[in-house]
Amino acid sequence: MDYQQKLAEKLTILNERGNGVLIRMNHIKKACADPKTRPSILTDKAMEPAIKYINKKFPNIDFRGNIQNLTNIQKQKSEVLAAALSFYNSFLDVIEFRDHVYELLNTIDACQCFFDISINFDFTKNYLDLIITYTSVIIMLSRIDDKKALVGMFNCAHEMTNGSGDPSYPRLGQMFLEYEHPWKKLTEEFGPHTRSVTAALLSLRMVYPRRNLPAEQWRSAQLLSLLSAPAGMLDPACCDTMACEYLSMEVMERWIIIGFLLCHSSLNTNQASQELWKMALRSGLFLVLTRDEVLNIHKVSEDLFDSIKGYVRGTFWEAKKSLSISCFIASGAMHRERRQFLRGTLMELFKVLEDEPGLLGPKALFVFMALSFSRDEVLWLVRHSENMPKMKTAEDYVDNQMAELLFHMEKLRGLMTKHNHVVQRYHVQYLAQFDALVLNDTIQNMSVCPEEESVLLSSFVSTLSALSVKQVENKEEFDFRALRLDWLRMQAYTSVNKAPLPIKEYTDLAKVMNMIQFHTRMVDSVEELLQETSEVSILGNYPRVFEKMFFQSSEEPSMKRYLMAFPLVCSHFSQCGHPLCPEEREVMEKRSLHLCVTFLEQIAKQTSSVVLEICAEQCTLNDQLQPKNCAEAISAARHRQQKKPLPKKGEVQKEKPGAESLRKDRAVVTNLDKMHLMLTELCSSYSICSDFVVFDHIVVPAEFLISHLETRLSEIIVRMAHYNQTTEEIARPSDLLAGLRAYIASLQSLSSYINVDVTRLLKNILLQQTQPLDARGGQTITTIYTSWFLESLLRQASNSLIVHCPTMHCFFNQASDNEPVFRAEQFSDISELQALAELIGPYGMKFLSENMMWHITSQVSELKKLVIENMDTLVQMRNNFDKPEEMANLKKRLSGSENVMKRMTIIGVILSFRLMAQDCLKDIMNKHCPYLIGPIDCLMDFISPQTDIKVTLGVLELASAAGLKCNIDPALVAAISNMQTDNMSVDEEYKLSCLLLVYIGVSLPTLALDPNSVYSREHGGHNNNIHCLATAINQLAVAMFTVQKKNIEQQLKEFLLLASSTLLQLGQNVEKMESKNRESVYLLLHMIVQESSFLTQDMLERCFPYVLLRNAYREVYRTSIITLG
């Protein structure tokens, strides 16, 4: 008969089912309370009269007499049915669960089962769990405010649809009414079960007091210390109550407090019950029902006993009230001391086991005890922090060192998982070579052993004896769930009254089997046991408390190395779901990921801040060594050599670079020391794991740090440029490059603290700086320097305030009365442009070129307009250039010559700057990747005039990107090509190009009128930048005729002939004012030929006498010598 009751199976199934129903009730309560998730039928304004009527009349709702109040349900009955169906079915689950619990508890009472946590552990635990789960379900049901409205609306809609109400509705309505005051009804229900419940709870008398000790006693007993008894370090940690040692204190307190509240009569009649209950009450003020739903145990006790006669004036009740006050004051301090003790103990335990993983075999119990104790303290603090009222001892409910406790818990979990094979191997041998023999001896010594029990025990022995180490080495899967379930069944069989084999008389068998059960779990379910003893998923239901703990810990310098425990704890949250409530998973997933990302972002933010502060300090120190800062040192040295008087005493002498490294006392800690220490602490937290999983998302903490560093460093690089568009201020490229190199050198040391790919980080950052915008859409140094060079330097050069100097390959400021905003030579010499090329690279230089081309095409568009305005005159001049009289008349009709020269000079200045930048880019490319430049250079040798133009332009574009000089500028060709308009034919474009050259040629003599058109021997150019015309004419002509596929050499010859003729006519002019700078202008012809790849000196001599050029050079050089003299 006992076997047919299936008590063990029913307890197991009902506990699992009850947990699901409990979580479901909690979800319904949360969903109805949150405006975002509240069912639409409850938020609809039109439904308010119906909801008020149903709540008032529930459960006896008159559908006929008050149909007016229910009109809207009638209109939306299908929607109401669909919306309320899942809630209705969930409430039916509660009825079904209650019925099965009633039946099972009555059966257990009828069987007069024996309960003792130290003997039939699993049977007793399942029994007490079922009672607490059932009570929690009923209390949660009573906390759902909208349950009557949901059920009533569903039943109304059901009757309106089907003509009759749901058959289960009367029972459901009755249950809601019965449990409006849940504790009153529950105490009535459990009155008949008082004997069984009390017996089960009193079996905790030996376990709970031993566990509920203050930290002083733990410390004096050297609890969990492996070093306290070195001689017994290899002895297996075992006792008669293995499972009780890591049983959660929170679980036991829930059993004791709620159990005795349900069976309160035993508190008046049994002194032992009263003492046990008081001890549990001293531990705190709140108990968890589920998730973040708590029970204020002292308030509930007071309310319950107030409603029961006989308690109010009794001595027990007075003792209870004084106990509440003492608990309120003392419990916080007691738990604070426990946490302090556990922090040190867990660290010691981890260090020993990490050093000697082999000890995990015999001392596995210590690990689970440590984890269970720590988990209890974490959960206690969480539920009390959230719900505790204001008090004088608030610091007892705040722990800014929680990170350390969580960190050591995670490290112990990780150690057990990593060395699982060690634990498995040890316990397989233990089971086969010790437990099997002890169990066999115990069976042999039993005086009575019925057949059913004999079969089970024999199967236990044979299963354990068959184990071998080879199974572990072969990585075979172990599964002892059947054995443990059989042991649970046997506990149930032998715990009933008048059992053939009463377990209370064979305690040795129970102790051996309980130990075997623990050892089997060490073989096949270590992960499950770790989850049972150390999961802290409750933190996911208290996000505010969890975040507060994190920020409190992050403010403590000593806790920074443990901060990674917080995001790692988020990986626990996926374990707390239940199949009966799948909706909860999505909510918890979002919350877990949000918390995890928040914590990792904050850790990464702190770490990146420290890293970049160190980089900034190093950059400052490096800046002190720059040549620009050595003037004072040179001056001081000069003073010493000349024996001049030293500075006065009041003057503070500047320290030399490196003085910060000289220390008289090591105890003196610099700011850099503090930052390095903080960086060490923060980076230590990343060592806990390289990655972890949160709800199927793989999280890599180091990537958050890399992302933060990438963002911050990009911003810093831009700030280091010191660009001010209003004042036109900007850092010299060489200064920025020096600072950037200091940052890079300092960042490289980060890889010695933490395993991150710094090279990849720097490549990403620097590559982004070569683009117009970075990954976040922000400005880059490429954009900044492009803007500055075009809008500041080249714009002033266009106005001749800044002059291009071919001799020194730079630009320089013209002498003027006003102080220049910047010195052009400090930004445009070879070293600065090489630094610019190194900073922005080929991509950045290409962007710079594209912007230059935009400015050039703007000027070309204006030039074409001028050509169109003077087209007739230019055509005639082209045909009559060898007739001086005719040309003189035509020249008077020509307008805008100065404008043409001005615009061509602007183009020449831009192209001259581009050539300088390209030369510097070539130097940098040769320095960094000569193996790449060599093949490109060779490829250019294969280009000939006969090569297809597309192929030619493709090769030239490649060469130009590498900084090589090209006869045809591919960027300019592309820009001119994009200017072609649809309404103009190729022949017309060609005609415009030819006439533009004519326009330029006939306008050259006007340059002699400009007093600034003086050639400077020192600078190798003219003071108004007209020497840049040579570059402009050559490159622009080549680009235009390449696009139009015409003969470049022929067109340039025609231009040379026309320009020579025009300039020769200038020589015949007798007016001195007009021909003042004639010799300087003559030199332009020579420069044009020198710059061109298509013109030669022979061609020039045919149309312009060389003697004139020689005399021109002699004249300008003679003037230069006189000026210098």
TrEMBL record:
Residues 638-663 are annotated as: Disordered. Residues 638-647 have a biased composition (Basic residues). InterPro entries: Nck-associated_protein-1. Pfam families: Nckap1. It comes from the Eukaryota. Transmembrane segments: none annotated. Residues 648-663 have a biased composition (Basic and acidic residues). GO terms for cellular component: SCAR complex. GO terms for biological process: cell migration; cell projection assembly; cortical actin cytoskeleton organization; neuron projection morphogenesis. This is NCK associated protein 1 like. The lineage of its organism: Eukaryota, Metazoa, Chordata, Craniata, Vertebrata.
